Amino acid sequence: MAALSNIDSTFEVDKLTYEIFSILENKFLFGYDDDDDDSKNSKSFLSNSAQISPGNVKSVKQSAGKVRILCIDGSGATDGILAAKALAHLESCLRRKSGNPNAHIAGYFDVVAGSGVGGVLAALLFTRGRDGFPMFSAEEALRFVVENRRKIFRSPASGIIRRVLRPSSSASKAEKLFRKTFGESTLKDTLKPVLIPCYDLVTRAPFVFSRADALEMDGYDFKMRDVCVATSADPVSVGPAEIRSIDGRTKIMAVDGGIAMNNPTAAAITHVLNNKHEFPFCNDVSDLLVLSLGNGESEFNAVKPNLSPAGFVRIAGEGASDMVDQAVSMAFVECSAGNYVRIQSNGIIMAKRAAPPSKTTSDLLSVSEDMLAQKSVESLLFQGKKVVEITNLDKLEMFGGEIIKEQERRKTAILPTVVLKNASPSPRTSSATTLSSLSSSC
């Protein structure tokens, strides 16, 4: 037994040694952000690595902490207002519990993934402003979505109007809005790893805009205004958006990210687990804290489903979101309940207060607030969903407490949870970019 114990300890030390050299590789070959707290922790880790003995390898491994992932669905029944309100509540909670009145969402998450309006929210909250902080607070992002909802989500034209109103003119308001908001900022100007999907009609495959890929080569770097146009381009009302990378080499014909992945949670988890350069100690879902934000489920008449093409697109996206939630819930079934939190309407409110087709912003704000206050819904293994006693607001409060604990733990940790990289000298791609990004280069 003693011999077996020695073998196990040696094996674990060898793994730890490999990970130490992985960090060294990131620093001296690929570079990482020296201003990041986790990067500072990695220096402390390397300087104190001599203190690690076979007897405390497991405790050292546990001290690597958890990677915090934020995922935001496409529009849903509330045109993104439910997710935006949830983020505003969460940021308020973080400021209250941390005692920092200037706390922001980007400071408490390591990765963000957003689709459609979720991608727009991700861009607003994680793009670096002139002062080095995020361009928008969560409350400001909520106000942005509320005030510009009609510009981002154009109502589908019909009949003679559709023939006269060309997609390009229909999309111009959104393009001007995003140009004014983001200016010349690109994916490289985001504070943390960002994943924003769209669907490329040229390759007929998902395309994921990724900060990691942008740092690898200019052929994967896009202006944030173009990223937002691409992920929110409604295929029915405005048609595809043709965009190019900043060096002009990569061209895509993009439509709404909800076509590809209305719920980007699975893509974000896969990216983190496969990106050992930035997340060297993340091995499985137990090393993650994931917050997934839905946007309410639309109410359709099941007896006489008189759906427009846009309605079919929306219900397909919402169905795909539920499938992703079910799969992710299954992956986290053996983890603590706080490792994966999903905020979504349980359907009761939309059934009772279904907004009319010409739903107003005040209607959506009221419905979204009610959705947050209602009892939460959770997916069960092979059993659909169940309504639990805890509310969505309670879930946000508890999750806020967990990510604050992780933030405090990192201040004294010897292992870096995240090692953010700078531009790499070699043209490699990360796990986020699909084959479509290669085949669509020109």
Automatic annotation (TrEMBL):
Gene3D superfamilies: Cytosolic phospholipase A2 catalytic domain. One of its GO terms (biological process) is lipid catabolic process. Residues 71-269 form the PNPLA domain. Residues 423-442 are annotated as: Disordered. Signal peptide: none annotated. It is an enzyme of class 3 (hydrolase). InterPro entries: Acyl_Trfase/lysoPLipase (IPR016035), PNPLA_dom (IPR002641). A motif (DGA/G) lies at residues 256-258. GO terms for molecular function: hydrolase activity. Its EC number is 3.1.1.-. Keywords: Hydrolase, Lipid degradation, Lipid metabolism. Belongs to the patatin family. The nitrogen atoms of the two glycine residues in the GGXR motif define the oxyanion hole, and stabilize the oxyanion that forms during the nucleophilic attack by the catalytic serine during substrate cleavage. Lipolytic acyl hydrolase (LAH). This is Patatin.
